[in-house]
Specification:
This protein is mostly helical and 297 residues long. Helix content is 80%, strand content 0%. It has one domain (3-296). The chain is globular.
Length: 297
């Protein structure tokens, strides 16, 4: 295969894993989301440590952790991504995956807007129109349902801010993610200690924890590779593909989520959802067209 084909295969694989991860999190929907998030963090650390040790890149993590400015940026990124992970897991448990998929569709447009606000990036007229169309779609959905799609907005916003943080880092994505989980792991371990060994965990709805309780053990350990593995694949793909191509393939993730939510989980999909999704798909088509046109020029 050519390098470009390898990049496409890697990116498609990453998005397919992320998309079908909804089925995985549905299997452990009875596990409190903070417990799932904690295991996701800890086992991501184990997976990435093994990967970086194998590729002899652990020294890059040490360089990162000695840079105070980089550590601060990575800490903010870690906060954003952990909140994003938590709400995504919660959306599946409370049967709101449709809103989750909408959030990941909105994200590229939010990222464009944040690039303008925080990084001084220039927006073309068609991009402004796409952002405005997405905003109109959200307002229309809010009016139709009588409540704002807070899950969608939260996921898109936290992921957008996470992307802004990444723009200020010069290290590679795998090393920066390793830095994020290093920062988050002490908090995750404290929470898991409380879940398994202390009585204050009644506030999560169950005392005792699920790790070591049978088949849940293996599934919770799988959360690490399912989180970090696609990030490694995306890093591989981004070295071989244009950003516009990566952006287009990324739409596969929320599309799979959307299909699972409506066809398998049978979540409600009203005419207001239909109109809002249609407008956002049009906005994404315009955004993608402009990105490809600018890249060719």
């Amino acid at each position: 295969m050519s390098e470009q084909t390898k990049g496409i295969v890697a990116m498609v694989t990453a998005c397919v894993i992320w998309g079908f991860a909804a089925l995985y999190y549905k299997l452990i929907a009875h596990v409190p989301p903070l417990e799932v998030l904690s295991h996701r963090t800890v086992w991501s650390l184990v997976f990435l440590f093994g990967l970086l040790a194998y590729s002899k890149r652990l020294g890059e993590v040490g360089v990162l952790l000695r840079n105070k400015r980089a550590v601060l940026i990575v800490a903010i990124a870690a906060l954003m991504v952990s909140m994003n992970w938590f709400v995504y897991i919660l959306s599946i448990q409370i049967e709101r995956l449709v809103e989750s998929s909408l959030g990941y569709y909105i994200f590229p447009l939010v990222a464009v807007l944040f690039g303008y606000l925080f990084l001084g990036e220039r927006l073309m007229r068609l991009q402004w129109f796409a952002v405005g169309l997405a905003a109109f779609a959200v307002c229309l959905l809010t009016t139709g349902l009588g409540a704002a799609p807070w899950i969608s907005l939260f996921l898109a916003t936290t992921l957008g801010l996470y992307g802004v943080c990444k723009k200020f880092l010069t290290i590679g994505p795998v090393v920066s993610v390793m830095g994020e989980v290093i920062i988050l792991t002490p908090l995750a371990l404290i929470w898991l200690w409380g879940v398994h060994f202390d009585d204050w965990t009644g506030l999560v709805g169950r005392t005792g924890g699920y790790f070591g309780q049978g088949w849940e053990t293996g599934l919770l350990m799988l959360a690490g590779p399912m989180t970090a593995g696609p990030l490694v694949l995306m890093s591989y793909a981004m070295k071989r593909l244009t950003l516009a191509s990566v952006g287009l393939v990324q739409y596969l993730n929320p599309t799979i989520q959307f299909g699972i939510s409506t066809l398998i989980f049978m979540e409600p999909f009203t005419r207001w959802h239909f109109i809002a999704f249609g407008l956002i798909w049009i906005a994404l088509a315009l955004y993608s067209y402009e990105a490809l046109r600018r890249e060719r020029s």
